[in-house]
């Protein structure tokens, strides 16, 4: 009888122990599962928060005030005051100071592909961005050429007079900047073409694979198509798919996403 009781006690202990182990395992598993769920929830919330911040930042980017960044000069044009800004607005109504030349002009480290090196200078930050843009284009199978970057005031005088003689006043006013009002003098602009298009600066460049790539990806490197299609009333220039202007990645993304010309982001309040 004693042996039977002992056997029953052992059996009961074994059963209780087995149940205890099973309970611990189930609780542990549930804890791990809940832990993973919490971790995934945190990651999702974190990523959502980041995306929200990005959208919020794009919606609240601060552009220079049109009226606070210029003053009238003796010629009747507005002379820009924020000449060192990547967002300096130069157009037919806003000119650079007489004799202005950027102090940080450099040659971008890019293949010339038939271009003249002397014409490829840009301000240092813009030049670095151009190097990255050209590398990105090449990685996607597109070879670009930097045709014309910084131009001095004197060079613009020469070009403007040449265009007046060879192409007439109407064409010149539509496509060429009056000396002192050229974006090229800022050191932030570059005319881009491709060897496959003969390095020409023509509207048809927009239909080439290189031109399409430039239109779709320039903003990723901080550039905008400065004179977009169907914005002539705003920019006062015809469509120039070859003319890119450095403004910085955040601002380029904003302008591209909102489909804005630079003038539309900086309207005059007067």
TrEMBL record:
<dbReference type="InterPro" id="IPR003709">
    <property type="entry name" value="VanY-like_core_dom"/>
</dbReference>
<dbReference type="Pfam" id="PF02557">
    <property type="entry name" value="VanY"/>
</dbReference>
<dbReference type="InterPro" id="IPR052179">
    <property type="entry name" value="DD-CPase-like"/>
</dbReference>
<keyword id="KW-0645">Protease</keyword>
<keyword id="KW-0121">Carboxypeptidase</keyword>
<dbReference type="InterPro" id="IPR058193">
    <property type="entry name" value="VanY/YodJ_core_dom"/>
</dbReference>
<keyword id="KW-0378">Hydrolase</keyword>
<dbReference type="GO" id="GO:0004180">
    <property type="term" value="F:carboxypeptidase activity"/>
</dbReference>
<dbReference type="GO" id="GO:0006508">
    <property type="term" value="P:proteolysis"/>
</dbReference>
<dbReference type="InterPro" id="IPR009045">
    <property type="entry name" value="Zn_M74/Hedgehog-like"/>
</dbReference>
<feature type="domain" description="D-alanyl-D-alanine carboxypeptidase-like core">
    <location>
        <begin position="120"/>
        <end position="248"/>
    </location>
</feature>
<protein>
    <submittedName>
        <fullName>D-alanyl-D-alanine carboxypeptidase</fullName>
    </submittedName>
</protein>
């Amino acid at each position: 009888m004693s042996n039977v009781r002992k056997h029953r006690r052992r059996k009961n202990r074994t059963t209780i122990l087995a149940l205890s182990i099973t309970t611990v395992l189930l609780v542990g598993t549930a804890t791990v599962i809940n832990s993973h769920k919490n971790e995934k929830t945190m990651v999702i919330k974190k990523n959502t928060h980041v995306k929200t911040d990005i959208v919020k930042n794009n919606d609240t980017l601060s552009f220079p005030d049109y009226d606070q960044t210029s003053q009238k000069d003796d010629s009747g044009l507005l002379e820009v005051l924020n000449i060192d800004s990547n967002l300096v607005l130069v157009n037919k109504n806003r000119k650079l100071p007489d004799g202005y030349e950027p102090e940080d002009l450099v040659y971008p480290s890019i293949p010339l592909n038939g271009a003249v090196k002397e014409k490829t200078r840009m301000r240092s930050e813009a030049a670095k961005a151009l190097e990255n843009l050209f590398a990105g284009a090449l990685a996607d199978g597109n070879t670009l050429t930097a045709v014309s970057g910084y131009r001095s005031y004197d060079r613009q005088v020469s070009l403007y007079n040449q265009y007046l003689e060879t192409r007439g006043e109407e064409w010149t006013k539509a496509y060429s900047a009056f000396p002192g009002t050229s974006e090229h003098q800022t050191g932030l602009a570059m005319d881009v073409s491709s060897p496959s298009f003969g390095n020409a600066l023509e509207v048809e460049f927009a239909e080439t694979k290189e031109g399409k790539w430039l239109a779709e990806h320039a903003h990723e490197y901080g550039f905008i198509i400065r004179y977009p299609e169907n914005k002539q009333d705003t920019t006062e220039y015809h469509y120039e798919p070859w003319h890119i202007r450095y403004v910085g990645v955040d601002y380029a993304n904003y302008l591209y996403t909102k489909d804005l010309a630079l003038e539309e982001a900086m309207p005059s309040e007067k």
